[in-house]
Design brief:
This protein has 613 residues and is of the alpha/beta class. Among the domains are: 130 residues, no CATH class; 267 residues, 3-Layer(aba) Sandwich (Aminopeptidase), CATH 3.40.630. Helix content is 38%, strand content 21%. It is built from 18 helices and 17 strands. The radius of gyration is 28 Å and the shape is globular. It starts with a helix and ends in a 14-residue tail after the last helix.
Length: 613
């Protein structure tokens, strides 16, 4: 039994070492488990076996290191402990002496497999822990900012600007409403006496006009059209319905495919989010935030492949989400034009369609759209000059959107511009109004639409060849959002809370700056996130990827992409937006005060299993 215990012990220690690198969001829990197990193993050697092996002292050393790791949160102690665990795992596993021929052969094979797993664990340990953001730093003296209330737009003025924005209707990229909104923004800025610098673009644009579905003469309610899926004439396309099972689309050739999108099947949040901190304490990631965005992005079939298979059209049936929540959702908005029309319908209507498909009924799907081969759009920026002509702070958002919160960052930036234009600044502040967020296949560059702007305006941020250097940034998105959720009965309604204020930061200084900016707010619900496994939602991602220290403010309400007639004004609160603008201004002034050396550089992505609690 002693032999097999050492075998088991080697495997257990290997798992612990692997877990230290992979489950970076659970390191305190793993540290506690490692401490307890190391202590129990030490007791086993010392008192049960009464062994004099020196290995038992390594277990004591691990306990000491784990205590240091638990109390200091320094990555170096996780490295040391992890590699000691690997050493012990190898020693314990390879110390067996087996004479029986059959068992000996199995053991030899086991040693080869174990060696391979040790190599994998070493890679995971180094890569995972190295990517884990460290909380260890010296807090600088942050400027205490008291805003001049008379210089800040009132709630009434902000609301007037919001209503003007809404009057343009839907503002998807390159649409008439979007272009009118951009022109109004530029007019407001030039009226302040500021100069606007523009980058113009053209692209192939698609905008829904009419979407309808009927089966054997019965009208089926359409929740939304799949953007840039395809187009039909006024007569639509007609074909037999085929319910798709097990991702087998071949039976739908020459027919209309019916596909379920199950919103109850979710990607584990620790694979896409890594929580660093919260304010107030114990504010957590809400698992349903952004659920329909992820479901539509990850579960919808590749329409281009279906077109190549000869499928005529696609009906996407929502499951596990209320009819009200998915009505008019502009989803997904991240795919190329496919040339095959697709519509979303709610679960109740979907049951009818699936029943019809079982009887091989015939449907007519209509998706008329306005298209332009050479649609015009533009990004623009405004720079407020500071004493230091070589350094910049970038404040950015996107101008395209579909409702009051998506995207009102530009309205917030107008108020910030008005306030800061007469302030004595240390650094240049570049306000960047970006197009293309709702046409990412064209404008995303490396990640989001801001990456195209960065590529076209390197003189403002990259610090090379005499260019200015961006030393920090703030991304402004989705202000004034109230939380609405499906309740346990599937009723979509307000929860009484403000929407969780997800805030991406890529170094500890940015985290402390935002804490300082929000600490006096009456109502905040901040969850600090770090870019994780190549995921960072919003227009802060391109800045993050350039290692510019950034604060990415991005609440993500369930109605974020709802293209409704009332622009979701019933879910918006102007007082909340006003208070959030105050916090953003405070953060900008604190960043303006901090020297470049204290701002540091941004960390890269963290990897593997993040923290969401």
């Amino acid at each position: 039994m002693k032999k097999y215990f050492k075998l088991f012990l080697g495997i257990l220690l290997l798992l612990l070492a692997f877990s230290k690198g992979f489950f970076i969001g659970m390191q305190k829990e793993i540290s506690l488990v490692t401490t307890i197990l190391s202590f129990l193993i030490y007791l086993y050697y010392e008192f049960l076996l009464k062994s004099k092996t020196k290995l038992r002292f390594i277990y004591l050393l691990i306990i000491f290191i784990e205590v240091l790791s638990f109390t200091t949160d320094l990555n170096v102690f996780n490295y040391i402990s992890g590699f000691l665990l690997l050493v012990l795992a190898v020693v314990e596993f390879f110390s067996l002496h087996i004479e029986k021929r059959g068992t000996k052969t199995i053991y030899k094979v086991g040693k080869v497999i174990f060696t391979f797993l040790v190599i994998i664990s070493v890679v995971v340990l180094i890569f995972g822990i190295n990517s884990k953001p460290s909380n260890s730093f010296t807090t600088p003296n942050l400027k205490k900012v008291t805003l001049k209330e008379n210089n800040l737009d009132s709630e009434e003025i902000m609301l007037q600007n919001i209503e003007i924005m809404n009057s343009f209707g839907s503002r998807v990229t390159g649409s008439e409403g979007h272009n009118e909104f951009i022109n109004w923004l530029k007019s407001e800025i030039t009226d302040m006496g500021l100069e606007v610098h523009t980058n113009k673009y053209s692209f192939e644009q698609w905008e829904e006009k009419i979407s309808e579905l009927s089966i054997d003469g019965e009208k089926i309610e359409v929740s939304s059209a799949y953007p840039y899926s395809g187009v039909t004439d006024k007569n639509g396309v007609t074909g037999e319905l085929v319910y798709i099972k097990n991702n087998d689309y071949k039976p739908a050739k020459g027919k209309i495919a019916v596909v379920e999108i199950d919103n109850t099947k979710k990607l584990p949040l620790p694979l896409i989010m890594n929580k660093l901190d919260s304010f107030p304490l114990h504010t957590n990631v809400v698992s349903s935030d952004g659920d329909v965005v992820l479901s539509s992005t990850l579960q919808t079939p590749n329409l281009s492949k279906l077109k190549n298979l000869g499928v005529k059209a696609v009906i996407l049936v929502w499951k596990g989400v209320s009819n009200e929540k998915i009505k008019d959702q502009y989803l997904p908005f991240t795919t190329d034009y496919a040339g095959i029309p697709a519509l979303f319908i709610n679960e109740a209507e979907g049951r009818k369609v699936i029943d019809y498909s079982n009887s091989k009924a015939t449907a007519t799907l209509t998706l008329e759209a306005n298209t332009q081969l050479d649609a015009k759009t533009e990004s623009f920026y405004v720079m407020l000059e500071g004493k230091n002509k070589d350094e910049t702070i970038i404040i950015n958002s996107h101008t395209d959107g579909v409702n009051v919160v998506e995207e009102n960052g530009s309205i917030a930036m107008l108020s910030m511009l008005k306030y800061l234009k007469d302030e004595p600044l240390n650094k240049n502040i570049v306000f960047t109004f970006v197009t293309g967020h709702f046409r990412l296949p064209v404008f995303k560059g490396s990640s989001q639409a801001t990456s195209t702007w960065l590529n076209d305006n390197k003189e403002l941020w990259d610090g090379e060849n005499g260019h200015k250097k961006a030393v920090s940034a703030i991304t402004v998105e989705h202000l004034g959002s109230l939380e609405w959720k499906d309740d346990e009965n599937g009723v979509y309604k307000p929860t009484g809370n403000i929407q969780s204020e997800y805030t991406y930061v890529n170094n500890s200084i940015m985290l402390e700056v935002w804490k300082e900016a929000i600490k006096d707010r009456e109502n905040t619900r901040t969850v600090f996130l770090h870019g994780h496994n190549k995921f960072e939602f919003g227009e802060s991602q391109p800045l993050f990827e350039e290692n510019i220290p950034v604060i990415g403010f991005i609440p993500m309400p369930d109605y974020l992409l709802t293209n409704s007639k009332n622009r979701e004004m019933d879910k918006f609160n102007i007082t909340l937006m006003h208070n959030q603008v105050k916090s953003l201004l405070k953060a900008a002034l604190i960043l303006d005060d901090l020297p470049k050396e204290q701002l540091g550089v941004g960390d890269g992505y963290s990897y593997f299993w993040g923290n969401t609690k």
